[in-house]
Design goal:
CATH class: Mainly Alpha
Distance between the termini: 31 Å
CATH topology: Growth Hormone, Chain: A
Oligomer: single chain
Structural class: mainly alpha
Radius of gyration: 21 Å
Number of helices: 20
Helix content: over 70%
Shape: globular
Length: 419
Amino acid sequence: MQNLLAQVRQRTEIISPVVFRLFLAVVLAGLAGSIPEVIFNFYVQSLGYDNSVAGQLAGLVRLSGFVFGIPIGLLVDRFGGIRAIQMGALLNTVVWLVLVQTTDLTAMRALYFLAGVFASSVMVGTVPTLVRIVPPANRARILGLNFSLFVIMGFAGALLGGFLPGAYAQYMGVSPTSAEAYRFVLYMPIVLSALALLPLASVYRRLSQGQHDSHAQSAHESELAKARIPYIMLITTCNLLMGFAGGMIHPFFNLFMRQTFALEDAVVGSMVAGLSLALGLGGMFGKPVADAMGPRRGVMVLALVAGFLGMGTLIPNPWLAFVCYALSTFAVGMLFPFFDLLILPSVPVQQRGLAKSTASMQWSIGWATAAFVSGFLQLSFGFVVPIAIYIVGQFMVAALVLFLPYRAPVQTPAIAPAT
């Protein structure tokens, strides 16, 4: 019992007040982002659009991260991650407030695209800030915990997204698959995005009191930053492949289970919630693998595991297919934080916002392209081909990570935030 208490105390002592506030904002932002993921496809269908339109919209929200990835990263490096998170949460609130009021497809495309831009700002701003203020010995644990918190909130959000339309429909006397029921639930991200601003109200001042001037760079550092942009694009190629593999099936998993096995929305919502839980728990268990194998070999082994488990999604039984895909998702959750451990220490501290945004950009373009293509593939081949592409994508990541030229960590002292 004493050993257990000592371990708990050790884990909590590494979380400073600033990190705690960041985590609280991540929790609220993760919850806000997960609700639309489980019901926005249904909402689009309830407005009279088909799977191809749902695929276009799913692709647009990821494409936004590609189009604005580098500008967001440069803004993070220039003004700091906290400001990026604050502005992203505020503007995301405004966009969703307008989005739920319109049914025009052109307007929905534009607004959903903007929602992706501002959500990317929140995600990109968090990791470089954590890397800057957390000691190197604790970064693997903190980054894994950050990833897990964001994703596990998807578990709660998916549950809410799955059950609230039915509860609202029963209370108001409308169909649980009506646009009105889905629209009511989509108001929740508005409230949650606004609440995410509250924990960050005093963080910028506290962080500023403990930071050094990061804008004073030598000419050599400026030249180095410019020279390394192609290199950053190269070392984030695995993110591109992971996004492409995931975008083939993950944004359509709710439609896959409902159309293939005729399951009810509440059951599908529970399954999507289970996927979020699996992804988040995977992030928590990744550090022992990183310690045992190192991030590079860890990615290789876990990507192979994810690919083999993904084959089980083709089993003609809803529960076996779900369990196999959930375990594959768990493996992906374990390996995904490893990319930050490989990429961010390979670049100067002044470029970590750019490196993180480039990684997000690569993942977004892969996801957007796959979601767009998958929507059309489903019309001709169903879900078999997209699932097969997901499996092959995991195997390609396992092979590629062994050859990418990640560099030795750049030693930069952590900045102790004011308390």
